[in-house]
Each structure stands twice: as C-alpha cells, then as structure tokens.
Fold these 3 entries.
Entry 1:
Amino acid sequence: AARSVDNEASPRPVPSWASRLLSLFVAVFGLTPYLGLRNYPALAMFSNLRIEGGKSNHLFLADDFDLTGWQRDYVTIHETDIRALQLLQVDLGRRFTPATLRSLASVNVSSEFWITPPLAAWPYPATQPFVAYSIPFIELRRRLAPMRAGGAKGSVRYTRTWARPRFVFAGLWQLLGRKIQAEDRVVTNATYDLSVGGDAELEEPLPQWLASLARFRSFDLDYSPCRH
C-alpha cells in the first residue's frame, strides 16, 4: 500500500524569551561603537572600521548616532612615563614567530597587530619603542583617576581635541535639537603630573557602571593598521 504523506505544515518553533533577550543583547552590543558607547571589546573590533575622532572610515555610518561625543573628545599621547599609558597599545606582531613574519612578508602583508590590553593585563615589557597614539579623553580619565587617588607617580604630555561631528545624514541631530559644533577645538602641549594633580575633570573617577561600559582602544587618524 502507498504511504500517506502528511501535508500539514509543521508548527513553527516559538523563540523563548531567553533567546530573544540574547539576540537583542548581541544586536545592541554590536552597535555600541556607532552609538559612541565603547569599541573595545566590540564586535567591530575585527573589522578595521573606525569612527573615532570625527573621521569615520565607514561607508554609511559616521557620527549620526554618536550622541555621547566621547569618541570625538580625544587626546593624543605624545610622551609619558606612566606604564598604564605606555602599554595602552601593544604590537603583538613583534611576537610573531620568524616563520609567520616571513610568510606575511612573502605576500606583502604588514605584521602590525595592535591591541589595547586591559589594565594590568600585560605583565611583559613593551614590544616596541613608544609610538604616539590617540584615545578618547574618557579612557584617559578611566585609567588615571584611580592612579591619582592611589598615589601613583608619573606624567604625560598630550594634545586634547574636541572634533566637530561629521554626518552622513544630520536629520537625527536636527530632530533632537542638538547643537552641532562648527569647528574642531584643540589644546596643544597639555601636561599632567600624577604627583601634582590639578585637573579636576581628569581626576574625577568614573562611576563603576560607566567604567565598565565606556572602554576604548587606541587609534591613529592618519595611520590605520590592524587594531583590536
């Protein structure tokens, strides 16, 4: 006898609330760099996309949804003897094996592989001589405020920049009535000494929830090797 075929469609599985919440979390977490909340760690950290400093290299996202402004208020570290800043960026490419370096060189691929280790997560010496870099001011504050409170020593020389926002579509800012900064503002040759203090903004510790949320990597507006 011929087998009967059940043509009734199988019921579609209903996503659980846990899976829905997990999906929402992943989606929001993936958007955090473009919302200006954090970019380290973030899902975009392996994409080589950058929106810091008001100079996005993204095809269709710039500062349109970055309402915090943290990534446009940044400092360029020129010199420092503070270990937490000296090792804020590390070139892991310097630790590749000779065979790996030869393989990369054979196909004309740079071995540079910069990371921003969490505080106290890099117990080794620097992998390279100090190279100037930029970070959001809030990241500098997140690192230095506890050190100042703990009596640490050291100094840093930097330039601080408040970059004007760049938009693909400025409609959201106009809708929210946000004031749009017309020009970049720059303060050059600023210095800070942990032993002396004197910068109330820099010395104010971030609330714990904000220190956990707002975490940023180093960047360079003029040079963009692989950064994580």
Note: The longest helix spans residues 17-31.
Entry 2:
Amino acid sequence: LITNLCLNDNAGSNVLQSSLYTASSNGSIREWSLCDDGLESMPHLGTMWEHSTWVNDIRLSPPKEGMCIKHGILCHACLLYSISDDRTIRMWDTITRRQVDEIHTPNIKGSTPFSLALGDRHLFVGNSIGTIWVYPLKKDACERSDFHICLEVTPGKRSEYCLQATLKHGETECPILALEVGGVNHSMKYLFSGKQDGTVAIFALDQGGLNFEMIAQLNQ
C-alpha cells in the first residue's frame, strides 16, 4: 500500500535524472526514475529499508544553492526525511540511498509521528495525539536553555537531536494529518498544521528562538 510520495526535480542541477519517491505500509521507500521520453515506463532505481512498519510521510531537504560539497552536484536535495509508526525519523542520503541518521520520538500515550515539515532551522513532526514535536534540523544545534538531557551529559556537549519544543494544536487528541512551512513570496515565516478534526492552526516561526506562537486557527 502506497502511503505517501514526493518528487525530486533536478531541474537546474548538473544531474539529468529526476526521481519519484514512494513510501509504503511495509516500511520501504522506493525511488523511481522520471524520464523526459515518457512516464509509461519508470525504472526502479532502488529501495530504502530501515523502517519496520508503515511510513507515514517523506520530505526532501531544500535544494542547496551552488555546489553540494558532499556529492558535487548543483542545486541538490541532499537528504530525504521519513517518519514511521515505528516511532523513528530517518534521514537518507539521496545518492547512496543509505540511512545517515535517525531520531527516536517519544512514546506519549502511544503516539506515533504522522506528518512532517522542514523549516530553516527546525524539523516539525505532527503526531497522532494532536501535538507537534520540534527538533533541530542539524546535529548538536540545541537552543534550549532549561535543564534537560543536553545538560546531563558531558559539560559543553549537546544531544545530537534534542526535542526543542512541543506545540499544541487545539484540545482534541487526534492526528496532525498535514504540515507545511511557508508564507508570502516563498518566505519561511509560518507553520501550517492540518488536523483530523477539520481545523487548521497557523504558528509564527521565531527567527531566532523557540517561541512558536499559534496566531490563528481556522475551522472548516
């Protein structure tokens, strides 16, 4: 069963091939080639296997401006992010299709990660109980000042991917089905959250801290 998909359009890069990624209920993520000579036949390029169950969402990192140092590719989406009912967030190298990192999400009331969005500095993960977990996009980039796991380890050392904040979208404990970061003229000023109860919450993204205020809620 296909659960989600995303497109890696390499227009503007020095790589001729563009790809379609499909996520599945068996825990796999498959990559397919998109060819200019027609989509009737899309060659299967490879499969990413690490999740043990249903993959709920997949997202590509924003294309890097200029040359990607790691891969030597222009305008390149270097990473693919995935979330699953196995309570992990996994990061994949889009060239080797190998997992390069993972985050284990909290088990709160049996919650699982359900939806995913990427901001300038943070990774936003909507879960099955109506809240949104906020993680740093880069390793060792914790911004919290309170006493927590980062301060319990070796002084001066940060936990690789420390949970930064938990945002609350309303009172009902139902899944966050969709997340999107954006704004006017391609800005990254807002986080939009769509919930199973039919509401859409809009959070203002703090450009230099962890203050994510919910500024509006729309009821369909």
Note: The first helix runs from residue 149 to 152.
Entry 3:
Amino acid sequence: LTSIDTPLPKPKHHTYLPAYSFSISTMVIMKAYTVIFFHALVTSGVNGFIHDILTVRQATSALASRSTASSETGPLFGIVWKNPFENAFGGERLLLDQDAEARKELKSEILRRCALPGSKNKRAQVEKTINELAQFSPVKESATSPLLQKEWKVIWTTEKEINLFLEKGWATEILQTLDGSVLQNMIPFVKGGSLGVKGKIEADENNPIRTLFKFESAALDLAKWGNYNLPPVGQGWFDTVYLDDNLRVDLNSRNDILICTPYDSI
C-alpha cells in the first residue's frame, strides 16, 4: 500500500482477458480484486485503493499474456471483458493529471535554468532537470515523430562552436531545421550573411529516440565580401530524450546538450 504522498504508477492501456472460458487464472484475478478492494479501503483510503487496483491490473495483463489466446470460441460469452475497476474513482485521470502537472513544472524549470547566466555547475543543474523531464516525454519514439520535423531555435547548448558566435556577438540566434531526411543548421550573422551546414538524417532502427546524421555541405555567406563553400565536417547521432509541441531536448554523440523551441513560436 502507498501513502498519499507516494507517486502512483503510470497507467497502461486497457487489459483484455484472452478469449477462453473461466480458468484458474481468471478466478485468482477476481479474488485478488475482491481482497484488495476491502483491504485498501480499510487501511489506505481512496488513494491506496487506486494504487492497488492499478497494481492488480498489471498482474492481470501479465497473467493474460501467458495464457492461450488462440481459442476459436471467441470472447467470453461473446463479450469483450474489461477490468471492472478500469476507472475506479477516476484513478487513470488522476495519474494523467499528475503527469501533466509534473511535466509542466519541469518544462518551466528547464527553461528558467537555460535563461540564467552561465556558471560552473549550470550544466549539472540542467542535466538533473533533463533526467527528470525525460520520464514524462509524451513522445516515446521521437526519432520518427512528425513533431521533430520543423524549424527549431536553439535556446541553450553546450556546443562550444555554436556558443562562440553568440559570445562574440556575431549572431543572436541559432536555427536548426529538420525536413524529411534533410538536416540544416543556420547561424545568421548580425551584420548580414550566415554560416550554414546541410546534411542527411535517418532514424536509428535499433533506438527509437536516436537520429543519425552526416553533414554533406557547408556554406559561408559574408554578404558583400562574397560566398564560400566549405568542406562539410561532422557526423554522429543525437537522442531526442524529450519532445512535444513546443520543446525538444537532445543529447548527442559528442556529449553535448541541445535545448530547442519551435522557431515560429518565438
């Protein structure tokens, strides 16, 4: 049982029992529900009750997955059977609300830390918040998500080459665009011109949050002083550990951090 201050487990999808008549597993599950119902209400109140019911739901799923699902008799008595305490006292809604609130607070915290002046322990503080925020990412397969495909503004990074342009006052913003299989980084100069690199990207088949990249061209635009093609440098990967409509957090193969917001939202 849990106290009211203990975070509840994250909800999972509906659990369906396999299509077969009552078995020993089914009877065990129903008895467990009955015992936990009374035990939780007596000893822990509503919050503990919700926690224990959701715990039994996980056990239900595990038992069902080990049972034979190939019966030709169809669903039990022709009905798709659901867990009877699917939404007990709004349990799932409570969990979702808690996740949303935690996500909102952590997003605000990471943006606040990014805006603070640099310090020796700033990276450690940002990394701590990233580790907490990553658990609440609404997108689990970020490398193939349509949300990744847009123009982004880098609001904070540990990449020294990028920070040099900002620190020297040569640029005030860093842009990155992901469009299909194309990646483009652009640094517009304050006095005109820009530095841009372009390359190819693809999702890593073995890691749902990892994107592989390889730069293929680079161009330096010095406005009235001319345009110059430069040899492209760099290939590697980046893991998008957090992604939603208005925030993206990457960790890359150079052990650098990129935190971005959509450019059109600025």
Note: The longest strand covers residues 210-221.
